[in-house]
Design goal:
Layout (H helix, E strand, L loop, with lengths): L5 E6 L5 E8 L3 E5 L6 H6 L1 H11 L3 E5 L15 H16 L4 E6 L2 H11 L4 E7 L11 H13 L1 H12 L5 H14 L2 H13 L12 E7 L7 H10 L4 E5 L11 H11 L16 H11 L4 H8 L3 H15 L4 H11 L4
Parallel strand pairs: 3-4, 3-5, 5-6, 6-7, 7-8
Antiparallel strand pairs: 1-2, 2-4
C-alpha cells in the first residue's frame, strides 16, 4: 500500500491550527471535505483510504480538517462558509501552491464553488460531487429541523440516522464504523453548526462567476441530495459538464467508488485507474494483535493474552502500523473495526 500522508499544520490569522495532509505526486489538487472529517481516522477506513489514493494517483492530493473537526483546532466562529475560504487560503499557502485543481464533495461542493468564484485565477479544474446550490434543495424545513434537533439531543442516534441517509446501500459493518467516525470527528455542537451551515449555504450568485473547467458528478438516486441540485449546479456554471452515475449512496467512498473515481479523474484530466488491488494481508498473529488493539488493550494486556513478552507485543503493533501505513493505534483500531464488524 502507499505510504501514509505527510502531515502539516497551517494557521489562520487568529492562530487557529488547521491540520492538513499531503499524498502523492504531481500537480496539486485540494479536496474540500463534506461536513465532518478526521484526517487520521479517515485514512484508517479502508474504503475511504482507497478513494483518496485514487485521487492521489498522478496528483499531489491535499486534504484538511476544518476548524472544530478531526485534528484541527477549535473555533468560536459561526460564519462557516467565510471561515472555509480562510482555511483554504491558509492551507494552500502552507503547502506552497497558488494554482491547483479543486474537488469538493457534498458540503465541500458549494464551498468549492464559493472559492472558485472569488479566486478564479487560482483554480484550473473544478470537480463537484454530490453538491447543491442552496440548502433549501437538500431537505424540507421540517426534515432539517428534525435532524438538527436530533444531533443536539442525541448525537449517537443522529450519527446512525445520518449514516443510513448517506450510505443506504452499505453493509452493517461500514455503517457502524462510519457512525462512530462522525462522532469522533466532531462534538455534537460542532456537528450541529456545520450541518446548519450545509442547509443555509446559497451559492446561486457565485455560479456564473466561475471560469474554471468544471465537472459536476452526481448519483442518480442520491438519498441525501437530490439529482436536481447537481443539475442546477451544472446548468448555472458556464461550460460545465454533468456526469450522472447510478446509485443511492451519497458518500464518495461508499457504493461504486471505482465508477465515481473514474468520473472525478476524468474531470481532472487524468486517465482511469485499473481495478484496485487488495492490500497485502496481515499475518494471523498480526490480525489477532490488531483485534486486541481495537478492544483498547495495552501492549502489556496483549502480551498476557497471547503469552508473549510485552516487547514482542509492541513489535507486532509497530509492524502492523508499518504494513498499513498508519501512525497510531487509533488508526489500527479503526481499520480493524471497518474490516471486521465484530471485533
Amino acid at each position: 500500500m502507499r505510504a501514509g500522508p505527510t502531515r502539516g499544520t497551517a494557521h489562520l490569522a487568529d492562530g487557529t491550527a488547521i491540520a492538513y495532509a499531503v499524498t502523492g505526486r504531481g500537480p496539486a489538487v485540494v479536496y474540500v471535505p463534506g461536513w465532518v472529517s478526521h484526517l487520521e481516522l479517515g485514512w484508517a477506513v479502508p474504503a475511504e483510504r482507497r478513494f483518496y489514493e485514487g485521487l492521489a494517483t498522478g496528483r499531489t492530493l491535499v486534504r484538511y480538517d476544518r476548524p472544530g473537526c478531526g485534528l484541527s483546532g477549535p473555533t468560536d466562529r459561526t460564519d462557516v462558509a467565510e471561515l472555509e475560504l480562510e482555511v483554504l487560503a491558509a492551507v494552500a499557502e502552507a503547502v506552497g501552491t497558488e494554482h491547483f485543481d479543486l474537488v469538493g464533495a457534498s458540503f465541500g461542493a458549494p464551498l468549492a464553488v464559493r472559492w472558485a468564484a472569488r479566486h478564479p485565477t487560482s483554480v484550473g479544474r473544478l470537480v463537484l460531487y454530490g453538491g447543491w446550490v442552496h440548502g433549501d434543495g437538500v431537505a424540507s424545513p421540517a426534515v432539517r429541523q428534525h435532524v438538527l434537533g436530533l444531533v443536539d439531543s442525541h448525537w449517537g442516534l443522529a450519527s446512525d440516522v445520518l449514516t443510513d441517509i448517506f450510505a443506504p446501500e452499505a453493509d452493517a459493518g461500514f455503517r457502524a464504523v462510519f457512525a462512530r467516525y462522525q462522532r469522533d470527528s466532531a462534538p455534537a455542537a460542532m456537528a450541529h453548526q456545520l450541518l446548519a451551515a450545509c442547509y443555509a449555504i446559497d451559492v446561486s450568485e457565485d455560479l456564473a462567476r466561475i471560469t474554471a473547467r468544471t465537472t459536476v458528478v452526481h448519483r442518480q438516486d442520491d438519498r441525501a441530495v437530490p439529482l436536481a441540485e447537481g443539475q442546477r449546479l451544472a446548468a448555472g456554471i458556464p461550460g460545465s459538464t454533468l456526469t450522472v452515475l447510478p446509485g443511492r449512496t451519497h458518500l464518495p467512498f461508499a457504493g461504486d467508488t471505482h465508477a465515481l473515481l473514474r468520473a472525478i479523474r476524468a474531470g481532472l484530466g487524468l486517465p482511469a485507474l485499473e481495478q484496485e488491488v487488495a492490500p497485502p494481508p496481515l499475518t494471523p498473529r498480526q490480525t489477532e494483535v490488531a483485534r486486541l488493539v481495537a478492544r483498547g488493550w495495552s501492549n502489556r494486556q496483549i502480551a498476557e493474552e497471547l503469552v508473549i513478552t510485552e516487547r514482542s507485543a509492541e513489535s507486532h503493533v509497530e509492524r502492523i502500523r508499518a504494513r498499513l501505513g498508519f501512525r497510531s493505534r487509533s488508526q489500527v483500531a479503526a481499520w480493524y473495526a471497518a474490516s471486521n464488524p465484530t471485533p
